[in-house]
Fold this sequence. Notes:
Rossmann fold, 3 domains
Amino acid sequence: MHAASTMEARGRTGDGLRVTGIVRRFGATLALDRVDVQVRPGEVHALIGENGAGKSTLMGVLAGALRADAGTLTLDGAPYAPANPLDARRSGVALIHQELSLCPHLTVAENILLGGEASRWGWIDARASRARARALLEELPHPEIHPDRLLRELSLPARQIVEICRALAADARVLLMDEPTSSLQGGDVEHLFALIRRLKARGVAILYISHFLEEVRRIADRYTVLRDGRSVATGAIVDTDNDALIAAMVGRTARGLYPVRAGTAAGEVALAVNGLASPPKLHEATFTMRRGEILGIAGLLGSGRTELLRTLYGLDRAARGTIDVDGRVITGATTAARVRAGVGYVSEDRKGEGLSVTRSIADNVCATRPERRVEALGILDLPRMAERSRHWMRELHVRARSPWQRVTALSGGNQQKVAIARLLHGEARVLLLDEPTRGIDIGAKAEVYDVIARQAAAGCAVLLVSSDLPELFGMCDRLAVMCRGRLSEARPVGAWTAESVLATAIGDST
């Protein structure tokens, strides 16, 4: 049966997925404390809360990856207790992961249908499988994606679409979506929202995690707020406002989200970039940045913003142009030389590039400036590493058991703080920050904003790339816009409006 018709047949009966009094412990930590949620057929129910509030743990329980210690789950009125993720999928509950769970060496079609391929007489029917994958991909069209293309050849947004199609292939009557737009932008987000509305019309129940409240307002019918493992508020999204939601999430209102900064001091030029190019994405960038300043860069996904930062840090080779740090040319220097010159970089892909998630907090914090007991022999001073890591954990409010806890066990917000701690421990004075608050909750964002503002006040020069215009307007002194690989003139942030930023980003000079 076609995926759409199967979901329609399943979705129109029963009362959806009901969670009652769910408890889950990890040792002495109470991750879920009597959580109650109901996701009805034909609705989008937003699950919101800070990182560490218990959202991902609840999703793990619902998807069969974790077992609850107490409480009950029912699916369309019948007891629901999945033994594992495959059991959950067979019951009609599919999870779309924020951290993609795909196989880069397989094709798009193989990833979408993994474990559920079409077969004849016990053999995989490759032609039927490709046809089914193609039909699912038509729900979310993307120019990069073809059923026979290897996943590793796709961009991160395209891989996110493949992950979504994989969940659709399960013919789910309940879809669990964990930050499904975190790697999408513009038209891809609109395609996803259109698909969600079609699924709602077929009677599919959707539990939707997002940190973007405006996104929640656009797509959700009802909401539940988790805080410290408890469900503290629920209701219709139209009956509440953002201040009330934020207060429920973090115990305070949105006022004061961005730190109050004194006027920017006229510090010395820390970074001077002239005619920098690194084709095919970066064609021309010229700007200067002074100590104590936060310079923002806006632009659409794929406009060359990330490539600019990667070229500044030496990860991409400059074809022409110059880069000066404190008056010294570093254009042809290695990344290690840039680090020694005081340049630090936080990648937008914290799991793939920004951190070594299988290693400890201390290993990551001290990566660019290791603490050694005997320098000549390269022997690490582990007590000193732990001491310095604890210092930055206190400074950045990193929530973890110890400096030796693996980064992969931390929430997204705490992982991002560890990435920033690595820069601060390395005494970077020119900070290149690419989407530093992507995928983290509003409380963690406020803490990251405070760290950035304090570094600027201490004399660092900060280059901030962000897709969040309120973030750029709230944090930056000046702003430039990237369009098709070319950087506009940087102007005081007050000289821009949201409309003028968008017009510049799409190349509309009228």
